Amino acid sequence: MSGDKPCKRARGPKKHLKRLHAPKHWMLDKLSGSFAPRPSCGPHKFRECLPLAIFLRNRLKYALTYDEVKKIVKQRSIKVDGKVRTDVTYPAGFMDVIAIEKTGENFRLLYDAKGRFTIHRITPEEASYKLCKVKKLQVGVKGVPYVVTHDARTIRYPDPLIKSNDTVKVDLKSGKITDFLKFDSGNQVMVIGGRNMGRIGVITHRERHAGSFDIVHVKDAQGITFATRMTNVFVVGKGTKSYVSLPRGKGIRLTVAEERDKRLQGRQTNV
Length: 271
Hints:
By secondary structure, the protein is mainly beta.
């Protein structure tokens, strides 16, 4: 209507993030400030990443404040996937390898059974590669085939057998594919989205729904079956043999009662 005032819209990108609106899996408390580190634009989605500031300060406890994290990062001692990152809010994500040269430590970002990023230490040999899920396979200029992975890598001339939803093993030094895992029944997968996030199991079968989401049925090590969308599934091994070391708990989600019994058992053994 002509009498109404024109609505004001935001000018430019958002640069702040209120603490209460930060992703729950960052596990930030409510009362330690009004704001949270807003992730920079990068290879992983805003709500599916972990900024380096939170990894170093809240997870590893190598810094007490955001300012101390800056001083660590600016020394060029933090590498993500083999490249030095000096951005405090760089968005590290699933399967990324974080290396700290001064301490000689290597970490791979994986989900625990409750769908939260966990501190998972790995050997230097394992830190030389990562697994990437193939998001799309296309033919580019001059007929060059290429794949795009979940961490925004574009890899030219892949093996002709590689298709969408398969997993490729990428050497971090050269950036080339050294091996691949097919999205097939019987292979080990980790769930990277939805309510079953962080759970690990073996694909039993896949339901195809034309015009909708394909559903994948997964059976975990305890024999419990659950279903999730195909986009939420990430192949991590052939058969039951995983290509990467798995975090504590091996992706088995316990019920509240089972968790309580496990805690009580641990206390009794300590006494």
